Amino acid sequence: MIMFNNVSMQYSETNEVALNKVNFLVEKGEFVFIIGASGAGKSTITHLITREIQPTEGTILINGKDTSTIKRRQIPYFRRNIGMVFQDFRLLESKTVYENVAFALEITGTSSKQIRRIVPNVLGMVGLSAKANVMPNQLSGGEMQRVALARAMANDPGLLIADEPTGNLDPTNAEEIMKILLDINKHGTTILVVTHDVNTVNRMKQRVIEIQNGIIVRDEQEGSYVCMEEGVE
């Protein structure tokens, strides 16, 4: 569960108001798109959720816990329940597919026995069992993003944040990634997708939160990608 209650964010270095009294609630198990132009405030929302920054005003609750009460030394443990997927994949080029996923478990202290059980399972989930020993530079963009998804799911997080997950993919691979995200969501993981991908949003008809200039201007169930400023769907 994610709750933003009158959250504002102003960066002291630039005096930029990134968010202005933002309110929304994402229930456990929801699938939500966050859309908006560059600089609208989408990245600020994800950085607040992961406690990379703290709000200037307001309260953020993640699974009922006020993030402002999380001590610095507790932040890495807090983040273990949040999987992250990025547009640029961020794979370790010197490690195989298996090792990339295993690394996410190693840094959390998971035992070797558990790693040997978990990694094949998550690679199977994204359809990459046969690519376990392949290096990232031998993969297509769609396959690299599937490795990134497997890595994000290795610790079985309750929340998965995907930041422009289809941004570097062709339509076919983009659709495949979204099918995997939907399947993950059906098993109970909350999915938050930050995207500019008009076709994906329109096709999937999930909840859409649109932000403009730090303000939420639309929150719709079964929404589409509507550019309100230009009046274009």
Structure report:
The chain has 233 residues and is an alpha/beta fold. The chain has a domain at 91-156. Helices cover 31% and strands 26% of the residues. The protein has helices at 42-49, 75-79, 97-106, 112-125, 141-153, 171-186, 198-204; strands at residues 2-11, 16-26, 31-35, 57-62, 65-66, 82-86, 159-163, 190-194, 207-212, 215-220. Helix 3 (97-106) runs parallel beside helix 5 (141-153) and helix 4 (112-125) packs across helix 5 (141-153). It is globular.
Low-confidence region ranges: 228-233
Report on the biggest sheet: 6 strands, mixed
Shape: globular
Strand order across the largest sheet = 6-7-8-3-9-10
Order of helices and strands: EEEHEEHEHHHEHEHEE
Give the percentage of residues in beta strands. 25-35%
Assign the structural class, choosing from mainly alpha, mainly beta, alpha/beta, alpha+beta, or little secondary structure: alpha/beta
Q: Give average pLDDT, whole number.
A: 93
Q: Distance N terminus to C terminus?
A: 30 Å
Radius of gyration: 18 Å
Task: Count the beta strands.
Answer: 10
**Residue share in helices?**
25-40%
SS summary, helix count: 7
List keywords for this structure.
six-stranded mixed beta sheet, 10 strands, alpha/beta, 31% helix, globular, four-stranded antiparallel beta sheet, 233 residues
Topology:
Elements: E1 2-11, E2 16-26, E3 31-35, H1 42-49, E4 57-62, E5 65-66, H2 75-79, E6 82-86, H3 97-106, H4 112-125, H5 141-153, E7 159-163, H6 171-186, E8 190-194, H7 198-204, E9 207-212, E10 215-220
Parallel strand pairs: 3-8, 3-9, 6-7, 7-8
Antiparallel strand pairs: 1-2, 1-4, 4-5, 9-10
Helix pairs in contact: 3-4, 3-5, 4-5, 5-6
